[in-house]
Model the fold of this input.
Amino acid sequence: MNAIELYLTLGIAVFLLSLHGLMTLYDPIRRLIAVNLMGAGTFLVMVSLARRSEVPDPVLHALVVTGLVVAISATAFALRLIIAGSKNDKTDSGGGNRKP
Amino acid sequence: MINTITDVLGWSFMLAGSAFFVTAALGLLRFPDLYSRLHAVTKTDTLGLGLLALGLALLDPSWRSCLILLLVWMLVMASGAVNCQLLARFNLEQEEGRHGGDGHQTGESDDA
Amino acid sequence: MTPELLPDLTLSLLLLIMAWGALYAPQRSDAMTLFIAFGVVVALIWARLDAPDLALAEAAIGAGLTGVLLMHAARALPDELHQDYRTASYWGALGFTVVASLMFLVHLLYDDSLFNAGLLDTESDLTPRLRTLADAAVPESGVEHPVTAVLLNFRAWDTLLELLVLLFALGGLRQLFPSGQSDDSATTASWPESMTLMSAWTRVLAPLLVVTGGYLLWRGSSAPGGAFQAGSLLAAAAVILRLTGLLPPLRWSSLWLRLSVVAGALFFLAVAAATAIWGDGWLTYPGAYSGLLIISIEIFATLSIAITLSLLVIGEQEDLRS
Done:
């Protein structure tokens, strides 16, 4: 086992953990965090694949840099949607009557 | 000969610095309220990071890396001190606003 | 198992703890804090994996801006609902993750089909061939740093589309604010006493951030750094200045603001159209000017990224609709 295999597995583990979180958690903020963690797991897999050769693969690194910026803009927009939604349905209190 | 002495000194400074970080973590976990936790974290962090930087500078004594380490240390020390003050003052204001609140804090597991 | 693996194992364990806490911490504020700490650990892992570009970007975006974003949003949100379901799903999450990751690891270690399929073989599969192509072409791209060359020359399309994604996110955000005047007192800062220290510290920090951002932009053509890292640092400077009230609202009605928001994408598109009409093709830079073109695109992109990100993070009614 070397560092690349370790980080590949770590990326998969983070992805799966947060996928489970995304499926079972109800709080919208936690779900948003879960989506972000899934993204981080994917980036981990990509970057550890980029590390296979002596000089790391610039193509994958560039893709991940792009992905980071896209991830934060999507997160910002989603957060504002959540806030706007919670302001709009104060009577419903965010679907509070659902049971898992 | 000079090399080995500076190496030993550098490594022992780094060990001491890491020990300070361990005590900071312990304090964060064990201390009862926000103020003493902040005290633990900022005091030992400043000293611990200073020792780490000193040790690293001894291990790599080119003036460029020494300067960089000094800058890093000063920046982290300043931001640590300011952040500690900000958190403490904000918390104090909140408690005074509640007129003798019970000192209940969230954030038990920060950086645990 | 070698001793060199020890820091990696520590970082992995730390990352898993942070991820677990960010999902399942009892208090939502703790979960957010641990998510920020997760960003810091990820930045360390990027540094460990020889990806300094990513470490810089992650430290600025993942650990810095995301933190402000979440904390800023947390004040506008109601308390968390659904406190009662959580104990049940702990074991499910743990079991699911551990079993599936172990299966993957065992597959990785004891089954060589992944090697046969070329996933882990550095010589034979497709991506390294792409990489060799990219490495061979870097001297002709106009910049020396391979990641910047890929971002702004070989795969400039991606970067252009990414600037458009930022624009779309900002456009979507504007739609959430009604065009009429309605004040939103919950989101305006009111720190009576800690304010003085905060603004004093901001006056020190913001110039440092601007200098560092400019340095990263300038350095990006030959070393790790570039438009995204510089843009997010500048955005961080704008955010702290705006939060302490040292910067007036970034009025959307100002022509300069709107121009700087679209400057990156517009300039990029202009270059693309010019190369398509007079040059060798869409976004194929003429060799002699490619370095200059890349730098100018990066400068405009930095400006756009900085303004757009700061608006996305802290933009309010008065910033976006006045």
Q: What stands out?
A: Residues 101-112 of chain B have pLDDT under 50 and may be disordered. Residues 63-97 of chain B form the longest helix (35 residues). Chain B touches chain C through 16 residues (CB under 8 Å).
